[in-house]
Amino acid sequence: MHSTSGQRWRNRLSHPSIVASLTLALIALGLNIGHSLSERAGMEQLAAVAAERLELYAASLEAQLARYDYLPSLIAIDQDLMTAVAQPGDTAARQRASRKLARINVRAGLGLIFICDAHGRVIASSDDYASSHAIAPKQEPPAETLMRRLGKQIGAGSGQFFAANEANASTDYLLSQNLQRDGKVVGQVVVMLNLAPLEATWVDQGMRSQGEKLLVVDSNDVVIMSSVPAWKYRLLNRGSAAKHAELLASGRYASHLGPDLALATEDLNQQDTSLVQVPALDGETRSRPLLAQERPIVPLALRLVTLSDPSEVWRHARYAAWGGAAVGASLGLVLLYLAYRRRALEQLFRASEALKQAHSELEQQVAERTQELRHSNSELKHQINQRLQAEDELMQAGKLAVLGQMSAGISHEINQPLTALRALSRNSLLLLEKGRNSTVAENLRAIDAMVERMTAITRQLKSFARKAEAAQAPVSLLAAIQGARTLLEHRIQAEQVTLNIEVSEQLRVSCDGNRLEQVLVNLIGNAVDAMQTSASKTLRIYTDMHEARLSLLISDSGAGMPEDLLPRLFEPFFTTKPAGQGLGLGLVISSKIVHEFGGQLRARNNPPPATGMTFEFDLALSPKESHV
Question: What is the mean pLDDT of residues 221-244?
Fold first, then answer.
């Protein structure tokens, strides 16, 4: 009975709806845990970074102001200044004191230094000497303006305090030191330092770092410096109307205090950080919470407050929350999978009986399909054999085509030297009959050179067919042109072609000399053929230099070629010559040779009014000729 009850509970717990509810609970738990842990770690890191920056800001401010702590005391013991205080009616003494104060002011980089008597009357001022010519007659001197506004605070005795600068709404730091004579206070030295440069640095850092704001708060809870200019001279927390009136009456602040920032920073006394609601800045539509930290500067009676933007922390916390939710979802999905797997196993067990019943029918169907597959395999093997036989025949046909092209190329390249050999041999027979043995010897040497030339051509054609790279060596370009001219001299003379060779004898190119002559023979021979029907037959061979390479140009005065046939000029077996006069392989072979030299063979019609065509290819200059 207990076994049946336990089985019933297991079935209920493994129901998909129960598992789905558990999955949702795990997702919510992972969401909460991931967000909480990530937010806590992020806030701690943000607070640590802000604390370090607070220390840097505090050290910067203290170092900036500590440089001038000693100055009022040093000025107070100056004899010229004491004389001016003791003899206020002595104009010369007051001028000397003003000049000295002006020099000290310039050297120290201050805004203003002045001395006053025990009744608050200004005796000498750095501004009296430095800008005496710039002050309008009716304009009140800066020192007297400052005493009129802050006389009560200055007369309170030695010390320091901060006050607003009425000229540009920046903040001034004032240091005062009593002047004593015979134990009595006879006046005061007042030093004023304008903090606008330091504040401008903070404003610039605040603009570059949008996530952090800096505030300097005095003992009256008024923001006297800030990286956000709009927050200056506003109460950090909430203040009453009476307190506003009292602050304005003190003269230490701007003529108008802005609305309170109302930042709830009271909790910063009990804890390191606190989230405060910050009013909307320019360009923002609503306020936002920032992480506030405070660092007191006791000697100056100031507090430094930083406000850090936790948006990035919350963004990462959201990512972590989704990650925790994903983990919870994964666990739930595993449970859901196990529940569905258990149900699937039960269904499979119930379906096994149905499969056994269909087994016999399936075996029969398998036997029928097996027979069909055997027949299909037999047919496929037959088709594969036919395809292999067809491929062998195609390969054999390809070999025959290549052999035919090579034989046609050899015939084309050797035909011209054979013609020259035939002419020289017949000429030698006639010369022998006439007894001109020396000329016969010259012909035999020419025949020997041509035979060697044909051997070289055959060797080069074989290298071209096998894609073998020929050796590169410095070759005289003019010698190669003259060699090709020798082979074609009889045709040039027979066609009465004027041959102009404009090539320097010093030019050396890096290539194979025999194959270069082979290209030249093809191009010059084609040019002679193209000019057969021309009235003027001129063949020009010249060069065009390009740094370490040169272009060799062969230009004829023939009829040219139609523009639509130019793209086919280097196709195998394409020729414009009559049948039996060309196989269409000469330019193909020449283009291949030039390409192996590292260049490119090009053809174009000569621009009007000239006629004919120009073949051009580039060659590399040998290292000794690269400077030519």
Answer: 80
